[in-house]
From TrEMBL:
The chain crosses the membrane at residues 12-33. InterPro entries: Sortase (IPR005754), Sortase_D_1 (IPR041999), Sortase_dom-sf (IPR023365). It holds the Pfam family Sortase. The lineage of its organism: Bacteria, Bacillati, Bacillota, Clostridia, Eubacteriales. GO terms for molecular function: hydrolase activity. The keyword Hydrolase applies. SUPFAM superfamilies: Sortase. Keywords: Hydrolase, Membrane, Transmembrane, Transmembrane helix. CDD domains: Sortase_D_1. The keyword Zinc does not apply. This is Sortase family protein. The active site is at H139 (proton donor/acceptor), C196 (acyl-thioester intermediate).
């Protein structure tokens, strides 16, 4: 009887550390998952800057998808409606504002090739018109060359394949490319536009841009209505 007790005691001592280790690993994984999700989104946004100057991302077989964006829609519109989620490489919006003389095509996703055709929105930010932070970036010497002209109170309009969305500039921003403060996800709805700060001596680490708040939504289809 005494031998059985000793064997049971030894077995408990051997198994217990493994049980405790498993519990600790499980708790650690749970604690890591949520912060990692947030970090992954920020990394996705931060890589937009690398794509602007990384030649290896070009010529990768990317298929551009251009859409005819209606900028003077005359049909019925709705305050709430259906979104049309774009595919990577698809132009799904046109950006216009009071400081620009041109309409800027907006592509979903980011690559060096896409940045040659227009502004890019990382899939790590929310689709235009949805709740959260919509982050759009473009080259400082092409499509966002006049972004610095935007001031508080100016209007920005985004026409998409599913609706028209207007914003008002509320803040001019300047930040280092390693600072994720302005490009991170947010609970409040806003539009963040940014580009590199012009630097004649080479690629700049500083970014300039604007934060805009939504002022008007016009969906082309009601919520729950089939999109034509």
């Amino acid at each position: 009887m005494e031998k059985k007790t000793k064997k049971g005691s030894v077995l408990v001592h051997v198994i217990t550390p493994f049980i405790l280790l498993s519990l600790c690993v499980g708790i650690l994984l749970i604690a890591i998952i949520k912060p990692y999700d947030k970090l992954k989104v920020y990394i996705n946004l931060a890589f937009m800057d690398d794509f602007k100057t990384n030649p290896e991302s070009a010529g990768s077989g990317l298929v551009l998808r251009d859409n005819d964006i209606v900028e003077d829609y005359s049909g019925d519109t709705f305050d709430e409606g259906e979104f049309v989620r774009p595919k990577f490489g698809e132009m799904y919006a046109v950006l216009k504002c009071s400081a620009f003389d041109i309409s800027v095509p907006v592509y979903w996703g980011s690559s060096s090739e896409l940045f040659e055709h227009g502004a890019c929105q990382s899939s790590g930010s929310v689709i235009i018109g949805d709740t959260g932070n919509t982050v759009i970036s473009a080259h400082e010497d092409t499509y966002f060359s006049e972004l610095y002209k935007l001031k508080k109170g100016d209007t920005v309009t985004l026409n998409t394949t599913y609706g028209e969305f207007k914003y008002k500039v509320t803040e001019n921003i300047s930040f280092n490319k390693k600072d994720g403060k302005y490009v991170s996800p947010s609970e409040e709805s806003k539009l963040t536009l940014y580009t590199c700060k012009r630097n004649v001596l080479g690629s700049a680490d500083e970014r300039i841009g604007v934060i805009c708040e939504p002022t008007e939504k016009k969906f082309y289809n009601k919520a729950g209505e089939e999109i034509k």
